UniProtKB/TrEMBL annotation, chain A:
Pfam families per UniProt: Alpha-E (PF04168)
PANTHER family assigned: BLR5612 PROTEIN (PTHR34595), SLL1039 PROTEIN (PTHR34595:SF7)
Protein name according to UniProt: Putative alpha-E superfamily protein
Higher taxonomy: Bacteria, Pseudomonadati, Pseudomonadota, Betaproteobacteria, Nitrosomonadales
Domain of life of the native organism: Bacteria
Residues of the DUF403 domain: 2-307
Residues of the signal peptide: none
From TrEMBL, chain B:
InterPro entries the record matches: ATP-dep_Glu-Cys_Ligase-2, CP_ATPgrasp_2, UCP005522
Superkingdom, natural source: Bacteria
Ranges where the Circularly permuted ATP-grasp type domain occurs: 80-456
Protein name: Putative circularly permuted ATP-grasp superfamily protein
Amino acid sequence: MMLSRVAEKLYWMTRFMERAEDTSRLINAVTLMTLDMPGDATFGWDSLLKVAGLDELFFEHYPEANESAVMRFLIQDERNPSSIMTCIAHARENTRTFREVLPWESWEWVNELYLFAKKALPGELDRRQRYEVLQGIIRRRQSIVGLLSGTMSSDDAYQFLRLGRNIERADMTSRILDVSHAVILPTDTPAGEQYNDLLWMNILKALSAYQMYRRHISVHASSTQVIGLLLHDLRFPRTINHCLTEIADVVQALPQPESVMVSVRTSQDMLASANSEALAKAGLHEFIDQLQIGLTRIDTALRERYFRLPEIQRPSPSAEGASDSE
Amino acid sequence: MKIACDNYQVSDAFDELIGPDGHPRPLARGLCEYISGLGEQELAGRIAAVNAAIMTSGITFTVYTEAGNIDRAWPFDVVPRIIDAREWERVERGLKQRLRALNLFISDIYNEQKIIKDGVFPLEVLKDSKNFRAQCVGTMPRFGVWAHICGTDLVRHSDGEFYVLEDNLRVPSGVSYMLENRQLMKRLFPEAFGRYRIKPVDNYTAQLYDTLAALTPRPGQRPVIAVLTPGIFNSAYFEHSYLAQQMGAELVEGADLVVQEDDCVYMKTIDGLQRVDVIYRRIDDDFLDPEAFRPDSCLGVPGLMRAWKKSTVGLANAPGAGVADDKVVYTFVPKMIKYYLGEEAILPNVPSYLCMYPKDREYVLANLDKLVVKPANESGGYGMLIGPQSTAEERARFAELIKSDPRNYMAQPTLSLSTAPTLCEEGLEPRHLDLRPFVLQSDKLYATAGGLTRVALRKGSLVVNSSQGGGSKDTWVVESAQ
C-alpha cells in the first residue's frame, strides 16, 4: 500500500538529491575544465546557466554572469530552487514526511548531509574549497544511495525512489553533456584538437565515467565516442540509455502503467535513432533539448497516473445511476 | 561541571530526589552515587555524545516565532526523575478512574444529560462550552469511549501529594518524547539501569495500537490504521511521524483521504482507493471535516463525520471529546467520579475558583496577585495570568477580561511545583517540573509507567510547556534499587 502523496514525495526527494549531487558534479567538471583551458579560450558562464535552464531566473537577481556570481547562484542561493543548498533542504524536508517507509537511519544520514551543507556552503568558496566541499556532498549523497539499495526491500517506496533518481540523472547527464556547448575555444589553433579532447575528458570525469571509458572504449576522449557512450551504453549507470531502461523497468511493474509506458517508449525510440557521429558534428544541443522535453513528458504522465488521483473514483456506481434516472 | 548533591540548594518546594535535610531520598541514593562517581570528564563526554545524537536523529520540536518557524532540538536534561512504584500504583488507579468517569460524562452529555437533570452539573457551563459539538448529539461510539488517549497533567505540591492540573482529551502530545527520552537515557547511563528495576515505557506504542485496533468496524481482519496529521508545519509533526512509524500505521494528511458515497473512508494510493478502518487524528475538531465544522478547512476530510456517525470508521479521539477538556468542566471531575462511579476521587484536583459564580469571582478579583488565572479552553500555557509574577497593568487587563466573560475564566492558588536536580551551567540546581502520564481506553484501560516530565529550564520559572521553552527529563518508576 503506497499513498499517492508519499509516492510523489519519495520521487521528488530523490530527484532533489540527485540534482544536488549532479549539480556538484557539473560545477566540479567546469572548475577543472577552466583550469586546463588555454589563456585565450573563454568559458561562457552564461551558457552554463542556459545548460542548467536557469539563465532567466539568474538575471532577475544578478547584473552579470561572472564566475563568482554564477557559482553562488548554483551552489548556495536560496532564491534558486535548483541550487545545491535548496535541493538538499527540500530533500530533507521531504524525508521528514515519510520516515516511516524508509530504513530508520535514512533520516539521520539525510539530515547529516543537510547539516554538513549548511555549515560548509555559506560564505565565499574559493576554487579549492569549492571542490572539496562539493566532493563532500557527492560522497555523502552516494552513501545514502548505498544505504537505501543495501537495506531497503524492493517495495513500492523503493521503486519510486529509483524512478526519481533515474529521471533526474538522465536529465542531468544530458545537461552535463551539453556543457561542451559552453566552452568557446579559439579557432584555428593547432592546439584546438587537444583542448577538445580535454573538454570531453572533463565531461567524463564529471560523471565519474572516465575510468570506465578508458577501460572499455579508448584512452583518447573523442567527441563521437563520448557522446556515443553517454547516450547509448547500457553498462554505465549514468548513461541516458541506462536511465531510460531503469525507468521502463520500474514503470512496467507498477499498477496499470500503460499511459506512462507510452511516453517512456517515445523517449527510448528517439534515443535509439540518434547517431552519435552526426550529433558530434552538429545538432547535439537541439537533440538534448528534445531529450529533456521527453523526460518532462514522462514526469507529467507519472503525475497524472499516480500522484494526482481524481477526487472521486466510485466503487459503487449507485449514486450516478440514481441521478441519471431522475 | 561537577555533579554532586553536597551543595544543592534545597528550597521550600518538594524536591523529587533530595530530601529536606539535603541528602538524597532513599531511592535516589544509588543514582546520586553513580553520577558523582562518573567524574566530570566522563560525564561531559557522554552528554556531548547524546546531544549530537539528538541533533542528527532530528528529535525536534517546532517553535513558532516571529522570525518564522524554528526547528529546535528537544531540550533534554540528563538527571532522571524517580518515582516509587508503590506510590505510582495509586496514581495509576486514580488516572484510570478519572478517564472512566470522563468518558461516561461525555457519553451522557451527548445523549441523556442525566447529570444535568440530576443537578450535579450546571447547564449554563455546557451552554457556553466552546468544545461542545452539537453534531455529536445522539452518537454513541464503540465501548462508549470518546477520549481514547488522555494526557493528564499532574503536579506535586509542597505537601508531597500529586494534584491533577488538567486533562487533555483532544490531541495531547508529548508521548514520543517520553519514549525518546528513555532511549537517550539508555545510551547515556546504561550502567544505571543495572542498579534499578525501572518499569519499561516502550510498550506504549503497542498498547496504543491495540487501543486503536479495537475500534475497527471490520473485526476479524487486520485493521488499516492511519495517523491523520495537519502536516509538517505542525509543532508535533515529529510525534505524528514517530507514532505512525512505531505502529506500522500510515501517516496521512487530509488530502490523502476521501469519503465515498458508501460513507466509508478511503486513502488515495497508487493502486487506487483503499479503505481505512481507524484514524488516530491529530488535528482539532474545527478542522476535521469542512462539511460539519469550519468550511474553510483544507486540513480535514469532507464527510468524515458522516462516516464516523455511521460507524464505518473509528476515530480517536472522537470529535466532541473536548467538551470535558475545559478548565471549568475540570473542576467538576471529582463530582463526576462520585456520580458515575460511586467512588471518591483518588487524585485530588487543585482547589479552583469559578469566575461564573459571583462569590468566587469577587474573591478572584480581589486576589489576582496570588492566583493563577486560566481561560477555559486554551492550551500550551497561552493566555494565562500568573499572579505573583504579574504587573499591575496585566492584572488590570485580566480583571476586565474576567468581568466581560466570567464563564471563560477560572483561578487556582499558585502551587509550589516540586523540583528536581537539573544540570545547569553551574552544576545541579533545582528546577520546577510537572508530569504528563498518558492513559488509554477502548476495550481496556492502560496507563504509562510515569510519563513525560517537563522541566522549566529557567530559574524560578513555573512554565514547563515546550512551546514556551521548557525541557524534559526521563521519568523512572522504580520498583526497587538493587
